Amino acid sequence: MTLQEIEQKKPLTIPVKDAAEIMGVTPLFLRYALLQGRFPFGVGVEMGRNEFYINTNRFLKYMKCE
After folding, report:
1. Cβ atoms 19, 54 nearer than 8 A
2. DSSP one-letter string for the chain
3. Domain segments of the chain: what residues?
4. What is the pLDDT of residues 41-51, one digit of tens each?
5. pTM
6. Strand pairing partners for 52?
7. Which of 16, 19, 44, 59 has the most neighbouring CB atoms within 10 Å?
8. In this structure, what are the phi and psi dihedrals at residue 43, rounded to the nearest 5 degrees?
């Protein structure tokens, strides 16, 4: 999924894999950064299996500011 597709479709959330590809980083890097609270557009929660949430509007805003 591209940034333009996300802007058009406006899903409620974005998968880590898609966000990482758009940002030019690995999914593993993005997961660790979300767990550490390094980005303003999503969170990672440590559970038995870690869960991740990326807010579409915040992600789009973050990507346009760079």
Report:
1. yes
2. --HHHHHHH--SB--HHHHHHHHTS-HHHHHHHHHTT--TTEEEE-SSS-EEEEBHHHHHHHHHH-
3. 9-65
4. 999 999 989 99
5. 0.90
6. 44
7. 19
8. -140, 160
